[in-house]
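*** Protein under study ***
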Amino acid sequence: MLEDYLKELKKEKLSVLDMGTGSGILALAAAISKKVSRVVFADTSISALKLARQNLDSNQGLVSAECSFVKTDLFSKIPKGEKFDIIMFNPPYLPQGGEKADMKKTWYGGKDGMDATIKFLEHAKNHLNNSGAILLVWSSFANTERLLSYLSEHKIHIHSEKKIHIFFEDIFAGIIKKQ
C-alpha cells in the first residue's frame, strides 16, 4: 500500500514517521523511495529499534533518505510541532484476553483491540501536515465500529482501503486523511 500511495503523490521530499516500526520494513521501503527525504523509525522497544537499524544498515546502498531512530511510547518523544507527510502505524490490534504481560504491547490493543489505535489517532493528527496521510492497519477482530465512529466524529476519512483475508480474520490497511 505504501509504494502505491507514493506513486500517486506528485509531491517530493516527503517526510515519513513509522510509529511502532518493529523490524523497520515499512520505514525502509519509504527510505528507499526517491520521493522521500526523511524517515523516522519510532518504537517503544530498544530491541526493535536495533533490528530496524541493522536492516537499514544492510540496505544502506539503496537508501536515499535521511533516517533517524526514536525510542518512544507513541508520540511522547516526538517533538511538539514536528510534522510529517506520512505517518504509518501497524498497531497492536487484537482484543486483550489473559495473555502474558510481555506480549500485551506487541499484539493486544486493549479490551476491544482499538485502545492503542485511538490513542495513536488522537496524537497523530497534531503531527500530520495538512495534506498528509496516515497509513493504518486494523483487524476484523478489533472493534471496527469504534474506529469508524472516531474517524467520523473527528472529520477524518478513509481515502482508500485494502482488505486481505488470513486464516480466520480480515486485515485492513487504509490511507486516512483529514477532511
Q: What stands out?
A: Residues 2-178 form a domain with the Rossmann fold fold (CATH 3.40.50.150). The first helix runs from residue 2 to 8. The chain has a mean pLDDT of 89. The helical segments are 2-8, 25-32, 46-58, 101-107, 115-124, 144-153.
